[in-house]
Structure to design on (576 residues):
C-alpha cells in the first residue's frame, strides 16, 4: 500500500505518436533555414550589408547554372530515355533562377513573421477573456462575447482587412502617429493588418480555448472556490492553467493558419512575403520560380511553428493532463 | 453558554419543484465530529454544500460561531476560509503537485509568500503522512493518497470546521483504511468535522453524534451507541439494516 498507481513521468505518460521533433532531417532543414534567415536579416537590417551587398544572395548561381546545362546536354544526348536526367537539370535550373530572389523574399519573411506573431500574441490577450466570458460569463457578457466571435469568424478576413483599411479612420489615425513609417517602424498598412489579424485571430483562438475550458472538470472550480478563492481567482489559478494546456494542439492550428492568412495583408499593400513575391514576379515574369519559392518559405515557417508548439507542449506537460484527457 | 460552532436553523432548499432539504436543524460544538448518514438523494451533499455556500439555501439560516453566514451580505470567500471541504472524488487541482495543491490557498487566499506557504504545506502533508509525495502530481497518486492530499489542502486553510462528503466512497476497499486513519487522527486532535459517510467503523468510534437524514429531513439525531443499537424511528432501523446487508461482504 502507499505505492502510486503510476509512476510515469511527464514525457512517458504521453505515449505520443512520433512528432516532427523526432525527425532529425526536419530539424536540420529548419535549423539551416533559420540560420540563413537570421544571417540575412542581420546583414541587411543591422550591418547595412557589411557581409554581402543587400540584394545579393549568399549563394552563387554559377555552379547550378553549369550543372543545369551539363545535365541538360546529357539528357539531350540520352534521347528518349534521358528524361529523368532532364528533371534533375530542371531542378538545378530552378535553383539558379530562384537564388537571386532570396534576399528580397527574406525581407518579406520578416514582415510575415512580425505580422503573425503580433496578431497571434495580441489576439491571445483578447481571446483568453473572451473565452472565459463565453464559459463563465453572465447572460450579457456571454452574448457580447458570442456576438464578437460570430462576427469575426463569420465574415471573410479579407473583408475585415478592407473595412479597417479603407472604411474606418484607423488608417489615417495611425499614419499621423509619430515614428510610424520611419526607420524600422512599418507604415500604417502594416499596423492596420496587425489590428485586423488580432481581432480576427482572437475570435478563432477563443473558440479553441473555450472548448478547452469546457473540458476542465467542473469540480476543479468548485474545489478552488471551497478554499476561498473568488470565481475570478479560481478561473485564473486553477481553470486556465489546465484549460490552456488542453488548448495547445488546437491553438497551434490557428498559428499555422495565421502564418498563411497573413498573406492577405498584401491586398492592403503590406510588403510581406506574398506581396514581395507577387510584385517581383510581375516585374520579372518568373512566376513559377517565385511562387514555388514563396510556397517553400511558407512551408518552412509552418513547420517551424509546429516544431515550436510541439516543444512548448512538451515543456509544459503535466502527468495526467493533456493528451490522456482527450 | 457560548454559541455552538455550527448551527443549522430550519434550513430549506429546493431545486425548482424538488424539495431537497425541508427544515433541517441541528447544532455542533467545537470539537464535535458529526456523521451524517442517509439514503442516496436524501440531501446529504446538498446540506454540506449549504454550509459553505457552494449552494444557496431558500429558507432558514446557518450560523457559524453565532454569526449568520447565510445573509446576502456575508462574504462567501471569508466563510470558506473558515470551512474546509473534502470531496468524494477528491477534486485535486490536476495541474499542481501535492504541495502545490496544499499551498495554493495559502498563497492566493491568505497571501502568504511562497517559502512560508511551502513550509506550512510540508507540515500539512506530514500530518496526512505524505511528505514523500510532495512533488507528485495527482495523476501519480493512488486514490487514498489523493484523498489525503485533499484533506491536507483543506487543513492548510486552518478551518474552524471541516466538511467531508463521502470521502472514502470513491476508493478501492483496501485504500479506505489510510484515509479513515487520518480522519480519526483529526478527530482526536479536536478538529470539528461534519462527515457524510457510511463508513461504520469510523462512525462508531469517532462520531460524537450521528445524524440520519432521509428525504430532506433529520429523522434521528443522537450519539452512535443510541442510534445504532437502539434506533428510535422505524425508518432509521430499516435504513441501518439495509446498510448492513449492502456492506456485509466487507
Ligand atoms: N444542482 C442541482 N440541481 C438540481 N437538483 C439537484 C442538484 N443537486 C442535487 N440535486 C437533487 O437534490 C437531491 C439531493 O441530492 P444530494 O446530492 O444532496 O443527495 P445525497 O444525499 O448527497 O445523495 P448521494 O448519497 O447519492 O450522494 C437529489 O434528488 C438531486 O437530484
Ligand atoms: Mg452526495
Amino acid at each position: 500500500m502507499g505505492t502510486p498507481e503510476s509512476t510515469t513521468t511527464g514525457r512517458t505518460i504521453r505515449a505520443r505518436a512520433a512528432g516532427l521533433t523526432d525527425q532529425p532531417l526536419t530539424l536540420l532543414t529548419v535549423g539551416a533555414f533559420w540560420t540563413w534567415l537570421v544571417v540575412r536579416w542581420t546583414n541587411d537590417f543591422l550591418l547595412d550589408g557589411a557581409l554581402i551587398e543587400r540584394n545579393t544572395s549568399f549563394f552563387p548561381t554559377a555552379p547550378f547554372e553549369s550543372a543545369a546545362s551539363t545535365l541538360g546536354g546529357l539528357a539531350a544526348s540520352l534521347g528518349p530515355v534521358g528524361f529523368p536526367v532532364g528533371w534533375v537539370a530542371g531542378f538545378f535550373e530552378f535553383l539558379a533562377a530562384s537564388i537571386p530572389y532570396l534576399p528580397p523574399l527574406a525581407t518579406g519573411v520578416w514582415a510575415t513573421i512580425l505580422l503573425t506573431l503580433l496578431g497571434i500574441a495580441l489576439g491571445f490577450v483578447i481571446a483568453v477573456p473572451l473565452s472565459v466570458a463565453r464559459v463563465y460569463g453572465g447572460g450579457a457578457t456571454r452574448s457580447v462575447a458570442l456576438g464578437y466571435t460570430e462576427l469575426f469568424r463569420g465574415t471573410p478576413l479579407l473583408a475585415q482587412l478592407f473595412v479597417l483599411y479603407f472604411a474606418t479612420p484607423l488608417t489615417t489615425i495611425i499614419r499621423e502617429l509619430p515614428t510610424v513609417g520611419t526607420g524600422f517602424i512599418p507604415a500604417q498598412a502594416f499596423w492596420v493588418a496587425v489590428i485586423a489579424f488580432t481581432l480576427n485571430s482572437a475570435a478563432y483562438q477563443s473558440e479553441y480555448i473555450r472548448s478547452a475550458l469546457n473540458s476542465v472538470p467542473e469540480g476543479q472550480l468548485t474545489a478552488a472556490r471551497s478554499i476561498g478563492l473568488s470565481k475570478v481567482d479560481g478561473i485564473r489559478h486553477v481553470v486556465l492553467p489546465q484549460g490552456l494546456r488542453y488548448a495547445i494542439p488546437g491553438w497551434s492550428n490557428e498559428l499555422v493558419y495565421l502564418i498563411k492568412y497573413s498573406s492577405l495583408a498584401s491586398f492592403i499593400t503590406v510588403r510581406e512575403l506574398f506581396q514581395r513575391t507577387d510584385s517581383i514576379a510581375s516585374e520579372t515574369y518568373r512566376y513559377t520560380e517565385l511562387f514555388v519559392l514563396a510556397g517553400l518559405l511558407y512551408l518552412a515557417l509552418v513547420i517551424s511553428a509546429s516544431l515550436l508548439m510541439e516543444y512548448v507542449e512538451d515543456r509544459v506537460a503535466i502527468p495526467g493532463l493533456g493528451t490522456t484527457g482527450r | 453558554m457560548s454559541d455552538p460552532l455550527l448551527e443549522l436553523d430550519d434550513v430549506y432548499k429546493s431545486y425548482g419543484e424538488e424539495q431537497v432539504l425541508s427544515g433541517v436543524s441541528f447544532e455542533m460544538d467545537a470539537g464535535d465530529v458529526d456523521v451524517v448518514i442517509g439514503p442516496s438523494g436524501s440531501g446529504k451533499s446538498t446540506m454540506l454544500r449549504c454550509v459553505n455556500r457552494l449552494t444557496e439555501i431558500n429558507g432558514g439560516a446557518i450560523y457559524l460561531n453565532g454569526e449568520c453566514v447565510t445573509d446576502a451580505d456575508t462574504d462567501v470567500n471569508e466563510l470558506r476560509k473558515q470551512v474546509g471541504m473534502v470531496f468524494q472524488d477528491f477534486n485535486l487541482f490536476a495541474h499542481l503537485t501535492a504541495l502545490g495543491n496544499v499551498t495554493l490557498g495559502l498563497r492566493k487566499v491568505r497571501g502568504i509568500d511562497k517559502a512560508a506557504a511551502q513550509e506550512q504545506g510540508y507540515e500539512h502533508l506530514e500530518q496526512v503522512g505524505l511528505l514523500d509525495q510532495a512533488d507528485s502530481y495527482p495523476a501519480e497518486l493512488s486514490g487514498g493518497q489523493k484523498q489525503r492530499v485533499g484533506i491536507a489542502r483543506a487543513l492548510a486553510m486552518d478551518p474552524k470546521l471541516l466538511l467531508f462528503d463521502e470521502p472514502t466512497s470513491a476508493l478501492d476497499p483496501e485504500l479506505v483504511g489510510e484515509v479513515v486513519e487520518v480522519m480519526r487522527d483529526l478527530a482526536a486532535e479536536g478538529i470539528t468535522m461534519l462527515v457524510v459517510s457510511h463508513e461504520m467503523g469510523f462512525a462508531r468510534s469517532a462520531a460524537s453524534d450521528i445524524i440520519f437524514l432521509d428525504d430532506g429531513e433529520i429523522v434521528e439525531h443522537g450519539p452512535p451507541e443510541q442510534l445504532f443499537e437502539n434506533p428510535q424511528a422505524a425508518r432509521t432501523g430499516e435504513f441501518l439494516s439495509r446498510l448492513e446487508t449492502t456492506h456485509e461482504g466487507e
Notes: The mean pLDDT of chain B is 93. Residues 6-246 of chain B form a domain with the Rossmann fold fold (CATH 3.40.50.300). The interface with chain A takes residues 52, 54, 77-78, 80-81, 84-85, 87, 89, 91-95, 104-105, 108-109, 133, 136-145, 153-154, 157, 174-175, 178 of chain B (CB under 8 Å). The beta strands of chain B are 6-15, 18-28, 33-37, 59-64, 67-68, 83-86, 161-165, 193-196, 209-214, 217-222.
